[in-house]
Design brief:
With about 400 residues, the chain is of the alpha/beta class. Helices cover about 40% and strands about 10% of the residues.
């Protein structure tokens, strides 16, 4: 099948798949989102990262776009992840020298040019032939941290070669300990400096947006995918050569704190836990040896809690109490969103869907453009707010609107 979807299918997908994502937004935001389908000849023509979404929708077959767009149930958590940032305002200080703005951050012993990193996104060959290698080359050209998914469609060594540096490894710890141990060992031998254990994808999910997209896609999904919920374990090159016949769950429902301790003992490099959204869990993860916490709800893809990651961030930071770095992903669409997350305690901020939108639209240069836009917008708000470096972005730079009490409980 041609990589480009027909116009009629794009229109149908827009009505079936995109509207649930936009329905939770104010009218002006929906109108602006509708404008994002304007054609762009090159990444330089794209004004903001949201505009890449329409370009990706035009470039992809319906089911592939539906896969990256989907949340669960009504997709309200997907929408709220971003909309919740509007509950926060930025307090700008004047008479501050911002003639030189420094966006560098230090994270687990490594200095990065920007706090923006590329979150783990699975199966990137579904979005562009360059797949994870294109994303890795973009990360290299922008000196950005890249987190590679266990469900990568590209082999780990190829991604590291494209990045010209090690990448972080995002781990789905299966219900077969032998498989888990083997993939962790592979990642460590390959030089991955961090293992990011994902715990926010447990149990079943009702992905209605994806199911609607599949109904209007003329292709048979079994041409590309095995028809079960953990087919990536059988297809991803990161599991190649392993006996995965006993794997029933890629993210086991029987996780426990004892399991976390066992996994921590296995990991010799830095160990982060991704998917933490409460103070209590954050504190326990640190007690069990976690070197970092990622505040995440899997982009709203696996749970309909209606609680955004930016709302969860203050209490997670309070539970950590500065002992380890806290990262955040979910709904980050503007440089101002990054600023707000940093002010509430994040050390670094991850982007998932937008990197794939850029990849689908333009390949490597699209991912580079997404990173450039985020960093340009971050620098702009740092200048406007009177914060010449990341350390200056503190909690007192944020004002909470109205009765948004979720940000008051720290």
């Amino acid at each position: 099948m041609n990589h480009r979807a027909a116009v009629s299918r794009r229109s149908l997908l827009e009505s079936l798949c995109v509207w649930p994502l936009l329905s939770g937004l104010p009218a002006f935001a929906r109108a602006a989102a509708g404008a994002s389908t304007s054609p762009a000849a090159s990444p330089k023509d794209v004004l903001n990262v949201m505009d890449f979404e329409g370009l990706a929708r035009a470039a992809l077959p319906p089911a592939h776009f539906g896969y990256i767009a989907t949340g669960v149930d009504d997709d309200r958590t997907v929408a709220w992840n971003h909309e919740a940032f509007s509950l926060l305002a930025i307090r700008a200080h004047r008479f501050v020298d911002v003639s030189r703005v420094d966006t560098e951050v230090q994270l687990l012993g490594t200095r990065w040019a920007s706090p923006v990193y590329l979150s783990a996104v699975a199966s990137q060959r579904a979005f562009h032939p360059d797949a994870e290698s294109g994303t890795a080359r973009a990360a290299a050209s922008r000196s950005a941290l890249m987190m590679l998914s266990s469900a990568s469609s590209t082999a780990l060594d190829a991604v590291i070669a494209a990045r010209s540096a090690p990448v972080w490894y995002q781990l789905y710890a299966t219900d077969d300990w032998n498989v888990t141990r083997a993939v962790v060992d592979r990642a460590q031998k390959a030089g991955c400096p961090a293992i990011v254990f994902t715990v926010d994808s447990v149990g079943s999910r009702n992905s209605e947006t994806l199911m609607r997209a599949m109904r209007v896609d003329e292709r048979q999904c079994t041409q590309c995918h095995i028809n079960n919920s953990h087919d990536f374990v059988r297809r991803s090159p990161l599991y190649a050569g392993l006996d995965v016949s006993k794997v029933k769950e890629y993210s086991p429902s029987a996780y426990s704190w004892d399991y976390l301790a066992k996994l921590r003992d296995l990991v010799r490099v830095k160990f982060l836990v991704k998917g933490i959204v409460t103070r209590e869990d954050a504190a326990k993860c640190v007690e069990h040896g976690a070197d970092g916490i990622v505040v995440s709800n899997h982009g709203g893809r696996d749970e309909e809690t209606l609680r955004s990651t930016i709302e969860s961030l203050p209490e997670v930071a309070a539970g950590v109490r500065g002992r380890v770095p806290v990262l955040l992903d979910g709904g980050v669409r503007r440089g101002t969103d990054i600023f707000k997350a940093l002010a509430l305690g994040a050390t670094a901020v991850g982007v998932g869907r937008p990197q794939v939108w850029g990849l689908a639209a333009f390949g490597q240069s699209g991912v580079e453009a997404v990173l450039d836009i985020y960093n340009r917008e971050l620098r702009a708000i740092m200048e406007q707010a009177g914060t010449p470096n990341i350390a200056a972005i503190q909690r007192d730079r944020i004002a909470v609107r109205g009765s948004a009490s979720a940000f008051g409980r720290e």
